[in-house]
Predict the structure.
Amino acid sequence: MKVIAGLMVLAMAVVLVVAVGMAARGSGNDGSTGLAEVVLEDLRFTPNRLDATVGVPLTVRLTNRGLERHDLNFPSLHMPGLEGVESILEPGETRTIRLQFDAPGTHTFICSLPGHAAAGMTGAVFVRP
Ligand SMILES: [Cu+2]
């Protein structure tokens, strides 16, 4: 019985290390190549953090691997092609979008389908000078 409890603790420790490792991996790109990949699935963006540099176009390949429709919207920014239904991806669909920022800062993005952002389907682009 003691051995089983020990194994369970070990298993939990492994899960914890994996989770911390994933969190520490951070951004989906380094902000200098101008390329990133984001997967939309199960009410989350993976990764949900992107880095960008002011004035440098960032090309993002979006892939919907889920079973529902998703999109990627910036609620506080005007971003051509990302302000409405034109950015919705059907399950299995892939689309490449191009982002460019003219000021440093943190720009939140969300999935604007009902309930998705509230369930945690959000992310941010960190724009450095
Ligand atoms: Cu969604």
Q: What stands out?
A: Residues 5-26 have pLDDT under 50 and may be disordered. Residues 27-128 form a domain with the Immunoglobulin-like fold (CATH 2.60.40.420). The pocket of copper (II) ion is lined by residues 70, 111, 113, 116, 121 (CB under 6 Å).
